[in-house]
Structures
1.
Amino acid sequence: MRIDILTLFPEMFNSVFSESIIGRALKNNIFTVNCINIRDFSEDKHKRVDDYPYGGGPGMVLKPEPVFKAIQNVRKENSRIIFLTPKGKVYNQKIAKELSKEEHLVLLCGHYEGIDNRIIENYVTDEISIGDYVLTGGEISAMVLIDSVVRLLPGALGKKESYMEESHYNGLLEYPQYTRPREFNGHKVPDVLLSGNHKEIEKWRIYQSLKYTYLRRPDLLEKKELTKEEEEILSKIKLNFSNEL
Ligand code: 4FV
């Protein structure tokens, strides 16, 4: 996978690509990345990239010309040109999985009040929002997308790491995790996890996953096809926790 990032602040990405899992995946050529400064495509003598909004109003707007040239500079036949914006479809693990199958992602990071809409209407393939709040720029949103997509690429997660059982992977919230010591400040690890009885451990984990999802994200249960066994466990949970919702 190749990722091209169109931004006014390429240096903001330095740490993302030098550390931990994403840094290692880059070193192992599991993906390639290129940060492009939109200002380099401004033919304005002062390298301006923003201007006043037509119709008046607060703030500035990113001009179409430098963004168009930056996009044309990297765009390929099968490129997904993604504009990070609060007006986009709200990002989730399903979209992350979908994008992880693409060959070329172009991430367009906005700034100011936004970008000239003719770029969005004519040259952008996807508008994605990482959540219903407003940031100062699209860079952090692009980092969220890169981290959540690259870790799904084959070979990105080492042996010890896996995304097979994590929250949202199977549409449910993950069961709680524990590690040594067995007792910490008087707080014990659930006995079942020390039992070595993998069948009982699996049942406990399904129960916990369904319980947390029922109590914290019942909306996820509406979208999730449950097995017969999971349905039975969930009805017990509803009995036990009906008063907690
Ligand atoms: C955002 C979001 C976001 C809006 C104005 C950048 C800012 C500024 N991007 N999900 N929420 N972008 O707040 O993706 O240009």
2.
Amino acid sequence: MHVRRRQQLGYPTTFWSFPSFFRVIVVVMYASSTSALRRKSAAFVFPGARGYIPRLRSHSSLLFNERRFFSTSVSAAATVKDSPGSNSKKTGYYVTTPIYYVNDKPHIGHAYTTLACDVIARFMRLDGRDVFFLTGTDEHGQKVEQSAAKAGKSPQTFVDEVSQNFRSLAKIMEFTNDKFIRTTQADHKAAVQALWKQLEAAGHIYLGAYEGWYSVRDEAYYTESELVDGKAPTGAEVVWVVKEPSYFFKLSAWQEPLLEFYAAHPNFIAPESRRNEVISFVKGGLKDLSISRTTFKWGVPVPEDDDHVMYVWMDALTNYISALGYPEAKGSSPTPYQRFWPADLHVVGKDILRFHAVYWPAFLMAAGLAPPRRIFAHGWWTKDRQKISKSLGNVIDPVRLVEQFGLDPTRYFLMSEVPFGNDGDFSNDAFVRRVNNQLANELGNLFQRSLAFIAKNCEGQVPEPTSALTEADVAMLRSARGLLETVRPLVRDEQALHRYSEALNRVVNEGNPYFDEQAPWTLRKTDKDRMATVLYVTVEALRSVALLYQPLIPASASKLLDLLAVPSERRMFADVGADAALTPGTPLPKPEGVFPRVEDPDAPKDGAASPAKQKQHKKTKAP
Ligand code: MSP
């Protein structure tokens, strides 16, 4: 038989691609285990399966479907149980944001970095990992000292107030950070001094004198050759630091070890283009780094020399280990430091990659501590292609975005509009288009029309799939249940967050034509069994999709799962597959719209209700 004919008859083509002797073995094994397989395959597609098997067995076309289910169920089981990082093994996962300067209130850039980490942290938790997600504020340094003076406040009062804005933002955006660290905390300061002493004891610190360019805005030193038109390469103003005593870290000694480390750990810096930039920077030669200042006071004092305060970046980078209790003595049970260090992922903006990918691993290696596993540098948001800055008056306030459009649309837009790692330009127009197209017109629509139809025609219960599955049904279920396998490496290994949401959208966008082609409204008149099966397949596929949308749009995904009557204890990624399939006959709540369309508040009004008044879970009309 030709492969094409075999396909038409419904034989899995992969089977026919094996050599004939292998096919004989498979057929013999298959024949001898039909009843076991029947149970297994039914369990893949159907709910809580046992109660439904007798009924399915009596169906004449069951064998045809079972063959298909067999090939699918094997991969579905592998999805959940066999992949590294799945919930079969609970292991620690540590993800961090940069800690934010408290010289001003948070803007979209800060919200963006923490949101990305929040999505990753939620994803890893749902995938069964023991997650520690850290964010916080960077409260020392000349920049903060100057901002406090400008505000006419003491530095401590000033940082207490501004730091609170970042905590409030975390609440508003429903970030699930496990800890919020502040560098003015006593335990953090003690940790920074401990790291200093460790470096000093190992001979990596010496006293010298610094003279050169410094940018207070960047809190960074620049060489003459790095300046562009008399400014820092970032565009920040620089000042000449007149020769002053300073402690130095012997960074020059770490040039070769760092290059060896990058070569041995090709995934340490991402994206690839940024990795290449860092490597060429290090190859260009590393100078010893000035790590203390004497001309201002707002910082952690150098141990046994309090004329000096520590360089703010040395202070700030240490937050990643001070938050875990470093340098606490080893206890009998693993300490947070032992459980979570080295960090799995530091997410940073591209502007601060050098500090994280060069200075930080050098400090750690010099102190005999393990460097982090990976640093991902994301791009910058611009507005009308211009840098966002207070002086240009184009700052985008994340709190206002949430008020205008709702939280989940904001989260969804920021995570899906721009490939993570690239720069992106913000506009209300792009926001409205993306959110309405994908959330309202595709995901919301498929949910709404399938559930509204079920409410009317299936007594408001999960329908019972009594007819045999067709190829289209199996393909639909396979796409939805195979999603975890697709998205896990995208999130966990690559941080390709935009591709993660694209993968979910692809399945939803397959669901709408599936529903149209199967046309349950026609089947209602001609074949009620088939109608029930189509509806079951649709909502069962949506269940898997909604589970995987949870990290991106948590409140909406939870609402969708409520509408499918998915119990709260069946909402982990381990439940994406058949084992947790919907149980026919389960009563469903009254369907309601989850994704109202958003509107551009700056667009000319045509009498429509103000979008600011729309609530995220407002009831919408059934399509
Ligand atoms: N305090 C340092 C980080 C110390 S970490 C040990 C710092 N703070 S920051 O507040 O200036 O910036 C924090 C993060 O916000 C950086 O990763 C930065 O890239 C990000 N963003 C600031 N503006 C941004 C955009 N316009 N777009 C995207 N992210 C940007 O640096």
3.
Amino acid sequence: MNLPPRAELDAARERVHAALQPGGLAVLTGAGMSAESGIPTFRDAMTGLWSRFDPAELASDAGFRAQPQRVWQWYAERRDGVRRAEPNAGHRALAAFDQRHPGVLAIVTQNVDDLHQRAGNRDAIRLHGDILEDRWLDACARQPPCAVAAASGGTPPRCAECGNPVRPGVVWFGEMLPAHALAQAEQAARQCRVLLVVGTSGAVWPAAGLAAAARRAGAWVAIVNPHASEIDDEVHLLLRGSAAQVLPALLAGL
Ligand code: APR
């Protein structure tokens, strides 16, 4: 078990304990949160998706329109991976903490899997959408709009009425984040006394900006990550370790 030094863990536990108030603890998660559940991250060397695939081809509107079959098949494989995965000890520690302290914790996730939700954090704020959700590529012009669930088979499935293809409900590069989720995330960052940043490289904005926003608002900010990230300088403490090992040690008994 690779845990940070006891003194660092204890310092973080004291901060979390002092933040046991409504909205006192916010947790921003990234792909590293689900790595120990077997879901690949994006930028880890060799294993990360972007070291094997071109994000412009597979995670953009233009890429989907250029190769809808290939992109849909790639998401279908990722969806299968998410369905096979199980929440890990990190997800479960957050859900157990939420059960013990209703209203204290706000989870803001960049992850498009449903592991926080399956662990019990149904209200986790999704900044980058939901990979298991289907939606139309183009807004349906009909009133009422055609039901995406009625899309017929095919790769990708299409509307039987107007041929509109189905796309996964994730935020692609160059697309806006869901406004409501972003507003909730910014509110959580401004309101919290402690922000834990777990398993993100801090490479993607506006999510990466939440650490500095929380610190500016007076929060104490710590990172949980076995490796360096692009926002290490924004925080008060670096807890070098994995999500599934550090979060249970950090939250147990609190
Ligand atoms: N526990 C904690 N952190 C881990 C673990 C682990 N077990 N394994 C890897 N990490 C860390 C890595 O060191 C890295 O800093 O998780 C981070 C994963 O970074 P990325 O792959 O860049 O994922 P993320 O930060 O979530 O990416 C942000 O980019 O591709 C887009 O939309 C996608 O939401 C994603 C966004």
4.
Amino acid sequence: MQVYKFGGASVKDAEGVRNVARIVEQSKDQPLLIVVSAMGKTTNLLEKLTKAYFNQEPEAVSYFEEAKRFHEEILNQLFEDTSHPIFDQVANLFVEIDWIIEEEPQDTYDYLFDQIVSIGELVSSRIIEAYLGISGLPSQWIDARNYIHTDNNFREANVNWEKTAESIHASIPALLGKSILVTQGFIGSTSENFTTTLGREGSDYTAAIFASCLNADLVTIWKDVPGVLNADPKWFDATELIPELSYLDAIELTYYGATVIHPKTIKPLQNKGITLAVRSFVDLNQHGTIIKKTNTTLPVSSFIFKVNQVLISILPKDFSFIVEDNFSHIFNVFAKHKLKINMMHNSAVSFSVSVDYDEKNIVSLIKELKQQYDVEFKRDLELVTIRHYNAQTIARVLINKEVIMQLQDNYTCQMLIQPVK
Ligand code: ASP
Ligand code: MG
């Protein structure tokens, strides 16, 4: 069987949904499970809605209207028959947000985020499944929350693999092949049946979870880029497609922040030896990138950029050495405030890290660290990682930049940089 994953960009409008149906039409003779993200920028919009509602700002209502309008327009373009049940199904999903926001918030932000933002995936999967139906493709909508079981770490939930595999084995194999199964990426549920999310851009991970539990032959992530490139075209003009990539290089690239695939996606596939294809939903003649067990090394230097970085330097108040005890305490504080360390460096009397700027979490982190250490920080930095670097590639990214912190080993060079003033 195969698993296809369609991200938000592939279903950003009615034409995108029609294109999904065309792609699925070509593969309809094999057992297929489709994992979809929210349409276009819906997740960002629902995130803004959640923030505004949580802070009791009036914009919450206009964001909500915008989300409904956006989906209504797509529905109107796809379904001529206005009595099709999809119109009610979508309206009913949005009513769930209505119920939440008409009362004052009582729950934590992370919990509310998951209950509200997950509606994006529920709506898009309903629309896509219904559209496959009217296109003559036998399909069935599946609620991922009945299969992806997680803990209650809202917004970044951890998957209970045993329970998840059990649920998937119990019913999905019998459905596969009879119709095309359509489910949501990114979402799961707790043992009390509360909706959770797996972390931003987590739909790839969902595809890998289903693929792993079903021993899929192939997972395909359909993207708006031709495959895995050696740099994000957002930052570089001349990018190159990497036709074949080892699991190890793929893990390393995503670990350092290549956004083409969610970092948690590779491990479950590697464990089962499942090949992952990353290819264009625009140009179906291109094969894109194949990620599999191979000894091929990365053919070109690859660049990963992360903007909006903060350097946080932690120094013991009494000039004592940074020792193991301090490290475990410091790592725990970062985990508690949900900040992921992108780069770290330690010396005898200081420990420095670079993290993504997230105002709320950083303020609370620094407050806690300051009880025990002196803390300094510096904003508006960029982190560049070059895998298979050389002198030219380093020089290329340092044009008009100065280096704040640099680390390198045989394969990888990481530099925290800022524009020269
Ligand atoms: N819709 C979610 C997000 O944008 C999940 C995903 O796209 O993978 O983060
Ligand atoms: Mg997305």
